[in-house]
Fold each of these.
Amino acid sequence: MPGALGTAPRLPSPLREAVDERFARRGVRLLLKRDDLIHPDLVGNKWRKLTPNLAAAAGRTLVTFGGAYSNHLRATAAAGRLLGLPTLGVVRGHELADRPLNPSLARCAADGMRLHFVDRSTYRRTSEPETLAEILRATGTEDAYVVPEGGSNALAVRGCRALGEELRGHGVDVAALACGTGGTLAGLAAGLAPDQRALGVPVLKGGFLGAETESLQTAAFGGRRGTWSLDDRFTFGGYARTTPELDAFAEDFGQRHGLPVERLYVAKMLYGLVALAEEGAFPRGTTVAAVITGAPFPAAGAAPQAASR
């Protein structure tokens, strides 16, 4: 599978120290786990979550779900292009069907993904067998391989366990990452050593991720695994929302550390870590690894990334 995707994955992903006085003055060491450098098309945690599912799809059409700016939809579409695999993206928001495609969905379409828009009420029920069957019938994909929103299922969680395993033996006490559906957190926590803990920073409001993460661990491993917790104070209004304060923070962090900071996930996690350090939430001597799960989306109109990159 890795060779078929054009570019060999960079695994383990780099782990680099980021000297930052906001952490140093609190006696905290910051490391950046650069999962954004794994693969140019399946960026960040998408490689870890998608590749087990692509193998399971075994050439069948892959159907998955996401919002209008979904990183997961883009990564799935790119994988379909590289593998010659038909893909269908079920997009939240029926009203979007009559509008020009935004740059994110335009990239999906350029990579060959067929888009099927559903109203928001139907989208909330896509996990129900009757609703899913109706969508598959309507799109002629009854024999498809179905991956849930965000790519988070038992296969994906087991794929993300390697992320935690890669952080063993490096003096890491806390591994932090932004969370959308909880799949990466579920796998990360399972792969960490017993003396390490995972910290998830949700990017969506609602307070549901604790139960979702535990459910995913149960599906993947038979029960809760590892030590993990969530801090949901840094959603900045919810998914796909930012503020001038967050944008300014991300720009500053990027300049300090030579890191292109993705706004919808990574910036919120990094902002949360700075706030937690300033609150004294990490004891002196703590080493925190911030998992960089994605990269900023290219500017509108950019061509699809070449597989040979």
Amino acid sequence: MDIKVVVITGAGSGLGASLAKKYSDLGCHVCLLGRTKTKLVRTAEMLNYRHSIYEVDVSSKNEVTKVMQVIKEEDGQIDLLINNAGVGVFDLTENLDGDSVHQMIDTNLKGTIFCTQAVLNDMKKRNQGYIINVISLSGKRAKLTESVYSASKFGTRGFTENLALELEDSAIRVLGAYMGNMKTELWDGAYTEEAYMDPDDVADVIMESIKSRKNVFVEEVVIRDSRNKH
């Protein structure tokens, strides 16, 4: 399928910004979604082709539904949705306050569900489209100080696998991307050059994984730093 319109949540920095730049370089119209306009503008300044900026809180189903409708009307049918928006608060379980718990579940899990729901009907009508859910390795294994973050990612993993099952008889493709820690704002101040991956490298692997190939489709991809054995 020829990808013309790409929607990326959490496009203001990190992996979202890397994916935006790379898809823009391919000539796609990239729609940058996020909560902070200044970050989205910063990403937009790197892009070579036509793009759009939309301020949205993905945890709000109403906001998501409205924005996706505007994108369809102003930019065209959505060919690729990348659910990349994510929030992480890392501490022992008993130390996490209610706001932190809600924020992680609402953004990481509900946000992915709401954005997917908003594009599914049109993709089904055309019987084409791609949905990439950026999940992280925290959706596959336990890690200290990540109890609720991991719970939100395990939930997103379950949603992704069930969505793929629902769509297995269609031409719509779903990819779950599980990666280790990257040099992004989510891990600001925590990483060292040796232990954390470059978002550009991760973006390359994800994009390669959804390329059309005869009789082949990648349903999930696990990406980790080769220097990190755990």
Amino acid sequence: MTAVMPRPVSAPPSPEPRVRQPRSLLVWLAGAALLILLAGSILAASAVGASGLGPAHVLQSISHHLGIDPVGLPRLDDAIIWDIRLPRVITAALVGAALALSGAVMQTLTGNPLADPYLLGSSSGAALGAVSVLLLGVGLVLPVAAFLGAMLALAGALALTGRAAARGSTRIVLAGIAVAQICSAATSFVIFSAAQGDSYREVLAWLMGSLGGADWASLAVAGPIIVAAGLILIGYARTLDAFAFGDGLAASLGVATGPTRLILLGLVALLTGSAVAVSGAIGFLGLTLPHAVRFLTGPGHARLLPVLAPAGAIFLIWTDTAARTVLAPEEVPVGILTALIGAPVFCFLLWRQRRAA
């Protein structure tokens, strides 16, 4: 009997592979576009106001102070741009970037998507330092006092946590809450016992978040710290990816989880303390913006952080511009607007996540 071999069945032609643009390339293009948009936002926001100046005047003022243009603007116009608007806009950019980066890192280190930059009580400590200067006449410059208060709050939270801080225990969250409540109670007591008249209004505006007091002197104190700490955090992007999968995997990849976690917490405290020192407590930015940007970049920190920093800077520049113009000549604390924008956005993100689940 002769075996009959089956005829081979030809496989259907495979479809043409679709050419897909690498996501990382798209993310880097988005980051470059955001940097260009950031530069344009600084120029445009510095021109917004009742004086009738434009971005060309801002460029002329900057070039004059850099020694490029020997003539410059009339003295009053130059003072409006160089002494009032430009330091405020640059401060808003740095604070927005600092809070956005801090929020993303805290969410990764704690494994808590609801974590924000103020989780360790730094904002409450900074508020206590600032209120002490405003009401009690403590012999320190306000940004310096606020920064020292934020650092002392962090030290208190770490002292309460002990060795558990290096292991990422939930005790660090509880310690941050305890320190924040202690500092808030002390701040309330100082306000109740010493605030009078206009001083109460000044303190209230600072506690709600305000960039009205930004100048070149405060920017010289906080700016270098924010830039240096932010760049170092971005350099830890791959390490943060390892932390996102748990300490066990991070350790298997060669990460010294305990010391590295403390270094990252210290960098976050430097960023947050410096930001709060010049702007007060601006809420919801560090909580919602990292989640929103992750929809574009994905969870990888090497893509997330370089896009998140300019996105936070642009967001706070225009939010603060709206805060100083929407009810002009009165000024709305920028923390109110960030909460009005951030809370609905956060609710939408939660709703979308629930639908996806």
Amino acid sequence: MSRVHLTVALTGILLLSACSGGGDATGTTSEPPVAPSTPAATSPSPTATTIGCAPGGDGVPATAQAITTIDLDGDGADDQLWIDDDGAARTLGVTTASGATFTHPIDLAGPAGASAFALRPAATDPALVLLSDNRVADLLMVQDCGLVDVTDAEGKPWQFDQGFAGNGTGVGCVDITGDGEPDLVGLNDVDGSITRTQITLTGTVAAAGTTDTVTGGQDAADTAHAITCGTRTMQADGVHEAAA
């Protein structure tokens, strides 16, 4: 319903209510309100953000490591994040409460195995998944009921360094822009001086944004060497590949 139609409808309802009040001093009565001729127009149509992804796929494999995680498809219900190795391929997967399953191949080769962590820095941000081998972390986005690679402007997969290449040490969610909403940031701790770099997303393309440098105690250093988002952490709230 357009704003104009909504205003007219509300005005009509208010006028009818005023005429039908039980405490009318004149003792007159009013005709009962007439039902709208198009009641369906007063309710929004269901969308993918309210009903979740359509059911499909094979669900969580029996051999997978799985964890209940945040709502990834926008229907308000927690979903499942899982990692599976069937001997032929390693797979990262999401199975939603609505019954949809979508996957992404794992090609990280770190000896520690793979871990995955779902996050949504701010309520209006897209759902993201970090896939890590404890050396680097690939950034994926949940888009159109699929797991899509986030890339840089040249089309290369966006990776956070976790101390392997000396460019970063962790990932977090921090309000670096001062707008009251957490931002996705890359963290780099160098002898207690922590550089925080905002990662902006335009569709599935990431870029470095605002940067600052802070200092802190041991807790800040520990956080700078981890993957976290608010009170949630990769260690406690992520899914981890089974040990070989």
